[in-house]
Amino acid sequence: MGVENPVNPPVSVAIATFNRALMVAEAVEGALRQSHAPCEVVVSDDASTDTTVNVLQQLATADARVRVLRHSHNSGGIDNWNHAMEETRGTYIAWCSDDDVFEPGHLAASIRFLEKHPDIGLVHSGFADRIDSQEGRETIYRPLRSSKPLLTNAGNLLWYMIRYYDWPFHPSTMVMRRKVWEQTGPFNPAYSLADTDWFVRAAERFSIVLLPRHGVLNRRHAGNWSNRLGSARMQAEIFEIVESAIGRRWPAGSLKHTCWRIVWRANTRLRLLLTVRARIQNGHAEAAVSSWKGLTRQTGRKMPVWFEQWGERRIRHAASRRPSCIADGLQSVSPL
Q1: Are 107 and 11 contacting, i.e. CB atoms less than 8 angstroms apart?
Q2: Which of 5, 52, 250, 301 is 20 to 30 Å apart from 286, CA to CA?
């Protein structure tokens, strides 16, 4: 890779893609346009069947920094994420989902902060929603959570996950030191929300800072991973991820383990109830019922069958009295 420039340390951008030719082209171009230019943009294709590979090859021909990798068979997603990350070579690694686009100055601001704070392993940022619809494209900047950098580490990780349960982080804003990836380990394919599990494991080892800026345009569209996965399943995975973190932090049966588990489970049940209410108000009966079943089955104590069925009837009746609202550009659950 040559001699490292201490003024402009090398950063690799990792992108994993599958059948998103136009979107991944925007993601790659957004990375290449950064004022802190990446030394490479590594794109791992998961055996796409559309024109994604042709588009990527054109980008690689136009700019030698674009490295295109390809699986011969579809891996299912998470293994492809790991492949993209593992093939990077920079001192820093930035992740970008194939349907998102870096905001101008994202890499420069992130690496500048990391260079000034050697005790911080990873930074992430706020984001804006880019909503694509038949009427056109709209960009909505989400309010920043803090006017100052917000620190997360092993000491306050559980409070952070409780406070920011809906959106603990946006994966496409993550910029990290290479040692964070190497010591935390790869994304765990046991989870569809493998990035959330990875974020929690990273925070157990390293200090993480949320920067008070917008780092990425988060594209909202029908093909979003979060849309395909579904709110109830996502929340069930978040529940399990944090339960596992509690188990790693304190031995089962200890006072702190018991107390934190009670707090976490109460928080999850409240969040699921709020999701049920929101889905009822939008007339989404199936989504509301799915969240209700998650609450009754997957939050540490299974409710009686009669109670679950009673609740389902009530939910369906309430949702049927409201017009269905299809527009759901701003979801409240952590995206991919």
Answers
A1: yes
A2: 301
Euclidean distance between CA atoms 236 and 267, whole angstroms: 13
Strands 120-133 and 136-141: antiparallel
Domain parsing of the chain, residue ranges: 11-221, 230-320
Tell me: pLDDT of 191 over 90: yes
Distance CA 112, CA 210 (A): 14
* Tens-digit pLDDT profile for residues 85-125: 999 999 999 999 999 999 999 999 999 999 999 999 999 99
Distance CA 288, CA 141 (A): 27
Pick the CATH number of 11-221 from 3.20.20.70, 3.90.550.10, 3.30.40.230, 3.40.50.1220: 3.90.550.10
The β-bridge relationship of strands 40-45 and 11-17 is parallel
Average pLDDT, the chain: 90
